[in-house]
């Protein structure tokens, strides 16, 4: 079951999108914790 270059490209793009979303959520959560910690 070999992937075509198109499928590989689509999978890579999906992986990058998911990684970006999860990193954004992680950074946002950390910032929220840091900002609310001082108050």
UniProtKB/TrEMBL annotation:
The keyword Transmembrane applies. Keywords: Membrane, Transmembrane, Transmembrane helix. The chain crosses the membrane at residues 12-35. It comes from the Bacteria. This is Uncharacterized protein.
């Amino acid at each position: 079951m070999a992937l075509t270059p198109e499928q590989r490209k689509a999978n890579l793009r999906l992986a990058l999108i998911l990684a970006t979303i999860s990193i954004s959520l992680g950074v946002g959560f950390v910032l929220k914790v840091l900002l609310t910690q001082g108050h």
